[in-house]
Protein 1
Amino acid sequence: MSKPVIGVLGFSDGDKAAHEMLKPIVQAQVDAITNALRADGRVEVVVAEDIVHSDKTAKSYAEDLKAKSVDATIFAYGVFAFPVFSVIAARYGKGPYLLAAPFNPDWPGMVSMLAAGGGLDHEGIQHFRVAGDVNDKEVLEKIIKFAKCAKVVSRLNGQKYGLIGGRSLGMYSTTVSMQDWQEKFGIDVEHIDQLEIVRRADEIDDEQVEKAYKWLTENVGKVEFNGTSFTPEKLKTQIRHYEATKKIIDENELDFVGVKCHYEMSAHYCTQCLSAAFLNDPYDWDGAKEPFVCACEADSDAALTMQILKLLTGDPAIFMDVRHWDQENGVMEFCNCGSQSTWYAAASDDYKENLAKVTLYPALDLYPGGGCHVNLQTKPGKATIARLCRRKQGDGERYYMTIIPCEFVELPKEREKLTTMEWPHVFAKLPFDHNIFLERFGANHCHAVYGDHVEELKMICKMLDVDVEMYNE
């Protein structure tokens, strides 16, 4: 996963003589931030050519950092700097912005940070703040968190989402406005007909199909052919659809996708479960690769949520349906006909270990096109569930993200038969009464990654002007 790229810009006094005297103090603060981040290694740093000390330098240095494609900018204060410089730099530079000042009673860097923050607030320019010694672990982690979140927001801007097919099964919560996405997130939506998958599937090289088939049948734990709807030839059709989808992604320069599937594909050709599983995986039969977000049922807000989670963590993101509350075990069961990444079966760097716990089952009779569903049970561990939803507000809609810290747990495989054995399963312990979730959650799909990412997601939402909904606060 690529690192965040953060610009560092120091601010000084606007009087020339005062600036020359104070410049070393500001430079020391810039150097302290830069050296700490470079030593830590999780963030790439680009330092402005000099210290801001005038309106013109505020504009030109900020523009220069922006031209170097930083994801965000840290404003560093060691002495009192004219607040107008920060406002000008923020107008012409690359946000989000983090204002940083040390605890130093000898010089009013803290005063400068607060004065600059007040100016930015006055102009409606969003920013974040951190105070203290950058070599203090807590202070450094705040800066790292800011950098990681800023990278997500920055790199969403300019991305291209491939909407393959249209609304699936009449679900309102899966559809989005192209104009709203472009204005709010900077994301373009490219509409592509599912027929392109079918057409391009016939063009896939037979040798590539045989290679994939051999790899799957040798590494997947069980392949349950039934001689009718799920045969070796039908699996090869699914492989062709996966390869065709990859070509569509490459040729259209897409950054993430949603595929409708139901019912045109699942009823007449094959389910798209194999594509969903291995696009999201960090590997396929051609070797290691970056996970690529693919949301089932053309759920666009799902795809966007998953893309945010992937950009934040570098890991595949889970797509799942809210299926059942298991009173006996005290877990929410998530189970969806489309597949999640097979990586979650063991969360191992060794794909063989993951695939050994995967079963390819025949598609349900509900999907007469045939093919397989990709079954696995998610490995236990701390996780964060998230979902972007919308509510009507005034003449438009307002985005909010529901964020739920949880713990994935393991149940006996036999337990999967209570719902739909053929589908992937996630069993999660929630930190609140399940009725709260069922009464308030704004969609049937939700998404997750391992780890506690609640605070990071809150910061990302603030950067995107998205409301946050927490059920345990």
Protein 2
Amino acid sequence: MGTGYVGLTTGACLASLGHHVVCADADPHKVDRLRRGEVDILEPRLPELVRDGQASGHLEFTQDTKASVAGAEVVFFCLPTPMGVGGAADLAAVEAVSDEIRTALPHGCVVVNKSTVPVGTAERVAALLGRPDITVVSNPEFLREGHAVHDFLHPDRIVIGAAEQEAARRVAGLYAPLDAPVVLTDTASAEIAKYAANFFLAMKLSFVNNLATLCEHFTADVDDVVAALGHDPRIGPAFLKPGPGWGGSCLPKDTHALLTVCEESGVEFPLLRATIDTNVEHQSRLVERVVAECSPGAGAPHDARPGTLPGAQPGARPGALSDGSGGPAHGSLHGVTLALLGLTFKAGTSDLRDSPALAIARRLRERGAELRAYDPALSKTRPDLSDLLTIVDTPEKAVEGARACVVLTEWPQFRDLDWEAVAGLLTAPVVYDFRNLLDPDRLARAGLSWQGIGRSLAMVS
């Protein structure tokens, strides 16, 4: 049920393992395109798996939801569960499909929640189905966008939560060719495990971004600090790279959903709230740096050490600005054009959902900046963001006449740009590298001032 990122990847990969899979989706245009082998999701190997699955007869697509479950032994719910009012997960799609197919489900089949859902959803779906002969199992996905096919076919673990051992065994059997560790548990534990994983990853990202601020204050190098941390096997290097904040289709909605669950159940979890708040504050801080250095009349930022911004008061929090009254400054970017490189929430995907790049862009726009953006995944599709910025089809068009360039997504091709040409197109030779992606020495040779996160020019020159 559903042919979004999770549904299409799950269906295509299960078909590649030799299972017969029918993917149902309510969007007739999407179904028609998929039948023609046209995959809109930017994901390595996925288009090939879709075409191969259809050619072998193992993979079908249909808009007829009820007909799709005829003869099914296992039915996967791969449905959207976006952030709803107050941060809770919106289960409208799960509830609607449960109601639609409950009488059409074959006797004794297993329904699997693959979507990320709040604790208790398996029991809720079972109640909605009202079929004692059907078991509802929780089998959360742990797929990374840009690596989804690889992650499905080479999982580090498979989590299956079920009240009945036979149902758990049947679902585990689908993954048998992958020879991966299987965690068998109850449905509530499986549901919590998914939220816990995403919360922990978000926490590591908030931690490293806060750590970068500390490094800026003391002229330390966050890359060296992280290298020291990453060699500790209890910590590891993954998700310890500073950036413009975390976002995407999972972390924001899942952390807010977990926070809502905690609040509704009366469980105090201050670390979760702090993780979310730290991310918001970090993005505000990055924007304030750009505002302080690029607002009309501001001095050149060439000698400004990150964390010591123009207008900062003695004893102020690193990266904070003051208007003299102890509160934050409210500079303006009216009349200032900025070039943004990267809009997707990470490289290797065309996904804009809760992108931190867009969050930064909105804050810059609110301060009056005119924004031109280039993203290699969007230069042809051109999503409608006209109320926020102008998307152009080359990096050069983005930077021409701009006051500064801001790197927001870690596309590797940005490293290989003709930075001498970029320097000649900008009205001021400044690049804010909010991914620490670029080579500062390379930019210096091009005559550009490089501004990273948690690293000063003195450390990298």
Protein 3
Amino acid sequence: MSDAPLPPFRAADVHVPDPYPLYRRYREQDPVHRAEDGWLLFRHDDVARVLTGRGYGRGAPPSRLPRECPHLRRTTANWMVFMDPPEHTRVRAMVAKSFTPRIVEGLRPRIRQLAASLVEELRAAGTADLVDRFAAPFPILVISELLGVRAADRPWFRAQAVDLQQATSARVARRADGFAVADAAARELDAYFRAELARRRAAQHRYEADLIGAMLRAQEQLALGDDVLVGTCVHLLTAGHETTTNLVAKGLLALFAHPGQLALLRARPELMPGAVEELVRYDSPVQMISRQALADDEIGGRAIAAGSKVTLVLGSANRDPEGFPSPDRLDIRRDARRHCGFGMGRHYCVGAPLARVEAETGLLELLGGLPRLALADEPVTYADDLVFHGPSRMVVRTG
């Protein structure tokens, strides 16, 4: 192993389809790495300590958004993922009252119907882009169903969700109008949900038995304003869209690359819940998240000053051999529940139960409904984004 210091880690240097060899170099040689704008952590234990401890906060990015994006700033300011206690605690309580595993499990039959319908469309197409025809529309259909969005509005919702995602740092770097596109989507979604709240309140408080109705009831108990409720609706619509898309698409890619594991899962579909945990660990849909040090700290012998940005490389942590033996091997019978693909601690992903049900159901329908499903003779194209990590185009054959 070379003793030469590693250069500052840059996303531009990463081979996006397979970042893991580079992660391994940093994890082994410089696991608490000083970067241009803060620190990067590559080991599982270090990442878990920051996620579960109280010494690091989320820090809100809306202040870093351009002032020319007022709608985007207001919307994201009310996303609980960017909040710290006590605001985070109150908003999470509202969502937790409405978004329980029991509610999600109750939706499983409807989620299966949505997945089966998309699978039938794939079968009829014969050859199609799995991202465009299944992995991307599937989670939008599910969250729309959960929120109570009218079926006729769902194609429009998908378009707005895609536009809102143009504000991520990787995409803004490539698209000059990314912030403007995202701000316009935030404006449209804000207006839609405010009109929906007004419509429901005008109906003499006869709230529908869906997620918006449940949040309206919880809002009254927790005294939260409409800005928070609207921001949460937008957050739930968009947060699970790209992550679940990546989980389904990359999960299928991993199984194609490990035919023995694919055959095992086809033969024993009851292994799917554990397989989904392993697929999240093996190739995390979100590769990095950031935190801010609330006080001076020390990690791995490095001094972390208060206020420093700390980037947690979840993809590396989930491939750390100290946490998972033979981490580069996919093993759907592995106990992978210690992975950090959904986060840990107080910011643990509130949508994780839904993501699990979507991935389990989507993959079961794909594998069971399309027994000859395979990659077509076209290279898989990845989005140029190391944070929300996954294919942008993945052509498959169904027969």
Protein 4
Amino acid sequence: MEARAAVDAAAAALTEWSGTPARVRSEVLRRAFELMVADTENLAGLIAWENGKSLADARAEVTYAAEFFRWFAEEAVRTDGAYGAAPAGGARTIVTHRPVGVAALITPWNFPAAMATRKIGPALAAGCTVVLKPARETPLTALAVVRLLREAGVPDGVVNLVPTTSSAVVVTTWLEDPRVRKISFTGSTPVGRTLLKQAADRVVNASMELGGNAPFVVTEDADVSAAIAGAMIAKFRNGGQACTAANRFYVHADVVEEFVARFGAAVEALRVRPSFAVDCEVGPLVSAKAVDDVRRLVAEAVSAGARVAHQATVPDTGHFHAPMVLTDVTHDAAILREEVFGPVAPVVVWRDEAELLAWVNDTPFGLAAYVYAGDLQRGLRLGEAIEAGMVGVNRGVVSDPSAPFGGVKESGLGREGARVGLREFQETQYLSVDWS
């Protein structure tokens, strides 16, 4: 079976790769970065074909994805540890970090290149070998990334890709194999729970980047123009199909009329087109089911009293859903409790800050959040009070390879990116040396 053969190859390559000097691993990742940047147009076209996002969004994803190879090329050589004296005397302590072993990586369809490089980069930098299962919707992008890694000099057996439509069978095979010591998963919270239960049977090291329900807060003293510009990115990048996408808009009563009017006009002006159209800003959703799921949430919201205040025009054929703004949404509306994986922006009016924070934090999720405030201190105070792993303050983007990406509550465990992203693929070991 291919799943077991992939682990065989990864296990066979582990000793040599983990023993490869960090500088050599670093240079391989640096070459992968350069090759990926040089192949931007081909990769972007492939992403657009598989995923449906606009070609502009796809190019931006390739740039973002490549940065993980560059960042972890730099982190690979930062092999810090610690040396100290035992307080009681008689011993010296040496702390080191070693690769966790064979790592199983499970990636989603919405960012098929970036989610792969965000996991492969730190794993290879740490000295791990990997088995990778891409989403069934987007296997070709993952294959292209692995091809570039091979061209960059990654040895046989270090990165092993298993495309499949039988995801549960493949991942279960990996989690039951004693040679697999790490799982890194990006996807839905329900699937994450299942994988965590399976990982618990063998106490497998687990990193989980799961669902989100990001609030987007606009205070009465916010720069409305900046808030609208940030909202357009936070909500409509990749057609709203992102775990960090703004899902619930909380706008202060003093500025809600202006915000909705101007935000709505910007939404109506969005050019929704096939992905390769020259002027495409928002492409189709990934599948007919994705469209149906968003339509259901909108229909339920409207039946509960919400109103479609603004929407863009969409083509007659294809998996399109109109980008839209919903108003007259109550703070307890059902659409605010679910992750809307599509281009829909429900707006809630708020007046009292304590009440706002209660509404914002009334969710089992805590991945990302956004706050627009005129007074920076207030923006930071609100950001710290929101139960989320990442908060954009006067900024509509939170993802960056140099920053720790991840959530709290049911949005996941662990972090990707930054130095901690490397640590997710390492075990800490200390040596106690007699000093008597």
